[in-house]
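> example.struct
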């Protein structure tokens, strides 16, 4: 019978099974210990190796045996301490002696489920392929407009409307001689003028205090100094009472979902609000995990989050799937949307957010008949998340391009394409092409787009990618300090620097959108649904989206 120790070794994993292998240069390493100190998952550790050496010296040498101790950095083969490839060790190494290398031959998928529990992670799906929206090109250039239509001189304002837009014949206007009066008996939906790129729903809890504070400061500066009306969604989880009662709440969209986290504080703050929020978003689905509820794992439910959400510390906070609390979209329209509108005296736009799916058209058609529904937000499969089962992120969902196109063409058939705004989300800016992706989705029929992962990468340098690099948002061990509630980690972020980068991102996007739209001949309004200006070199995509095939 084999010794027990040898049997144990046979069931261990080698480094070849792991997605990232640490490359360590012994000749460069100064043994300072910085790399092992900053590793968020303790994938590397200092250790000592004993080396047996045999030497022979002198005129009549005799072999002598000695042992030499070597101080080395060793990578763990424990599945619980798998290297996530974040590269935090590389950032702090003064001699460039260490870096993680992606192992394309890894078999990590076979070993990552422990105790019968499916593998969970944060980030975005493991799909490095080029998305549909990155393949689209802008092919219609107007030759009859001002030849100086460039982004530096073109002055039109890139804006969109959030809220139900009534047509001229629907407006309750009475003409009495030279006077125009509004009929007070007719309901006029609330509408907000916003920038067509929004910061999508990421909660206080999913993000660290410093990250959320930096985003909030950046949004406020854009509105009050730069004059660019960027808005941000709070995500499910509430907001600090001081923010709810401040004048800055008008730049934020409050989200409510099936967990109702943080809504006690919001309801209590209502009498003291000096401004209305920009809008109310009711989350029914999420693109990264369609069919599941939200999830904030216990690692991130610390004191501040527990207080805001009114829950105990260190417990998993799962929002149940929507069917457990809302029987159907009809009930949502009749109850949730109407009740939220009533809470703010019908002054605030209220709309649902759903995950991209084949049922999106059914939801849309119900909303189109409801006068209080302000918009519809659809989150496609490339959307990111703070925590989800890997199988949901990689194998479930619907691409956003075809979903938003189907919904827009359905509104066209009903003659309501300019009435009910569509908001597209999920993978916008995935390859870094923020303005181009936003413009393409707008020309497919969206009135605005949401970004989440992009702003985390652009503003704070998120390490995560589509090769499962980092993506430990769910564990509260974010090496950048973006998605953690651990003060030792989030103190690595400077909120002022985050705010500066947010401002730079949106100012640049504003210029790029003008650079795209101006040659199309548009100078007064967004080219929503202007699909004749799009082309693609893939026949199947062209036929599916009903746009030009170009080659």
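> example.seq
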């Amino acid at each position: 019978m084999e010794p027990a120790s040898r049997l144990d070794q046979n069931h261990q994993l080698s480094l070849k099974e792991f997605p990232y292998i640490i490359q360590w240069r012994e000749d460069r390493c100064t043994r300072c210990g910085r790399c092992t100190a900053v590793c968020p998952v303790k994938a590397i550790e200092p250790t000592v190796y004993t080396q047996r050496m045999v030497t022979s010296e002198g005129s009549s040498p005799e072999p002598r045996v000695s042992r030499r101790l070597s101080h080395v950095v060793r990578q763990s083969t424990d599945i619980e301490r798998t290297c996530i490839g974040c590269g935090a060790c590389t950032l702090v190494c003064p001699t460039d002696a260490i870096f993680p290398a992606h192992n394309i031959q890894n078999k990590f998928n076979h070993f990552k489920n422990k105790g019968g529990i499916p593998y969970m992670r944060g980030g975005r799906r493991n799909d490095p392929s080029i998305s549909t929206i990155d393949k689209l090109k802008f092919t219609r250039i107007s030759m009859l407009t001002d030849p100086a239509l460039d982004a530096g001189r073109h002055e039109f304002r890139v804006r969109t409307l959030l809220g139900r837009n009534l047509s001229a014949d629907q407006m309750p206007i009475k003409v009495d001689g030279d006077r125009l009066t509004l009929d007070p008996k007719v309901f006029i939906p609330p509408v907000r003028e916003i920038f067509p790129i929004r910061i999508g729903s990421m909660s206080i809890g999913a993000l660290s205090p410093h990250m959320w504070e930096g985003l909030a400061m950046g949004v406020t500066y854009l509105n009050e100094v730069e004059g660019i009306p960027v808005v941000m969604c709070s995500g499910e989880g509430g907001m600090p009472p001081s923010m709810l009662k401040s004048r800055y709440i008008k730049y934020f969209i409050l989200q409510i979902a099936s967990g109702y986290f943080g809504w006690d504080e919001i309801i209590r703050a209502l009498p003291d609000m000096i401004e209305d929020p920009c809008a109310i978003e009711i989350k029914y689905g999420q693109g990264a995990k369609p069919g599941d509820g939200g999830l904030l794992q216990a690692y991130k439910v610390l004191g501040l989050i527990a207080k805001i959400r009114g829950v105990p510390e260190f417990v998993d906070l799962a929002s149940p799937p929507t069917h457990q609390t809302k029987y159907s979209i009809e009930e949502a329209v009749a109850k949730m949307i109407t009740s939220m509108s009533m809470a703010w005296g019908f002054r605030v736009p209220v709309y649902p957010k759903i995950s991209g799916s084949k049922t999106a058209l059914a939801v849309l058609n119900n909303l189109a008949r409801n006068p209080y529904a302000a918009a519809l937000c659809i989150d496609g499969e490339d959307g990111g998340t703070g925590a989800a089962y890997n199988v949901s992120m990689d194998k479930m969902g619907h691409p956003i391009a075809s979903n938003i196109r189907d919904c827009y063409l359905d509104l066209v058939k009903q003659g309501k394409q300019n009435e009910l705004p569509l908001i597209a989300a999920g993978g916008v800016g995935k390859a870094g092409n923020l303005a181009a992706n936003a413009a393409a989705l707008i020309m497919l029929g969206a009135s605005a787009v949401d970004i989440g992962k992009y702003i985390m990468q652009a503003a704070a340098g998120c390490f995560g990618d589509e090769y499962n690099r980092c993506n430990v948002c769910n564990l509260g061990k974010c090496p950048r300090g973006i998605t953690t509630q651990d003060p030792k980690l989030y103190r690595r972020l400077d909120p002022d620097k985050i705010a500066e980068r947010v401002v730079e991102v949106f100012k640049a996007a504003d210029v790029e959108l003008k650079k795209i739209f101006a040659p199309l001949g548009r100078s007064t309004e967004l080219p929503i649904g202007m699909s004749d200006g799009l082309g693609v070199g893939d026949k199947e995509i062209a036929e599916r989206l009903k746009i030009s095939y170009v080659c």
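> remarks
The first strand starts at residue 20 and ends at 24.
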